[in-house]
Amino acid sequence: MKAMGNTRRLMALVTGGAALAAVLVAPGAQAAQNTEGKASPGTSREAAARGLLPGWKLTGTGSDARFRGLAAVSRSTAWVAGSKGTVLRTSDGGRTWRDVSPPDAADLELRDIEAFDGRRAVALAIGEGEASRVLRTEDGGATWTESFRNTDPRAFFNCLTFFDSRHGLAAGDPVDGKFRVLSTADGGRSWRVLPDAGMPAALPGEAGFAASGQCLVSSGAKDVWLTTGGAETARVLHSRDRGLTWTASASTLPAGDPARGVFAVAFRDRAHGIAVGGDYRPDQASPEAAAVTGDGGRSWRQSATPPPAYRSGVTWLPYSRTAALAVGPTGTDLTLDGGRSWRTVDPGSYDTVDCTPDLGCWAAGEKGRVARLGF
User: What is the pTM of this model?
Assistant: First the structure.
């Protein structure tokens, strides 16, 4: 009964929007970050009056890996994947993490992971040639099966997404002038390269970014979006038929350099989306790091007040039509108006973020950092 009451209170905060903002940005409400990157909890009168402690709450992973892959299953269960072939899983809300890394994977860079529950997950290793692989587990990471290994030295895969527990895609950089896409119809057990006849030609220098596992995202049964950078224009490609045919649209995000582009998108339905990115170099400014769409990505509008710096991950808050979070190495930003304006609410470094329908929001990043949004 107590858990049900907490869930109802959280849902009211998220759907209320303004109440969520008041708690998240109240002075001292979020967890402060010290120089070692550890969280020291703070409270505000407003938060205390609600009996809540909002903000990212770091969990003890016991790892120093950089986690750019994150699959949030629920408030209690999440998977992270990262450098040195590391995969961790929690089933108790982050109180403890179990190392379920694939054997002999220390040389792999795992940049994306998609999980269906606490036992079934699919992870993507990135890199040129055979470094790009797909691994799958059905027993919570006790054993792993390699279901795809790239044999084309020109190919480099970046991101995964699943429409349901059977149908999914993996996307990589252009080969022969077009982005390469893999497809599975059996939950990741087998993969095939999709024909590229319906894929627009890539621009000179165009590629994807394996920064957060969110350069390829889906919404519903067939819609999927692919983000790009590195060219004169940073684009978002959209498919309505699970990757068979695509259309491309220009974003407003920084472009014209291999370090600039769209790094992540999030769609709360087939029409409404948010794109984030910028220039990932810490010494370069990213003054236009976010954009929004209301027509499925056919057109993009620059955020009136974007995040103050490069952002690599973004997610909508559950049960809200206007609230979302964006994360990057210099902080977390909150929007309450569908991405038009953003406000920094936490200074901690995170690369990726994900939320679940039961109001479990997770973030992960460098030095083994994994946090859950706590109330």
Answer: 0.88
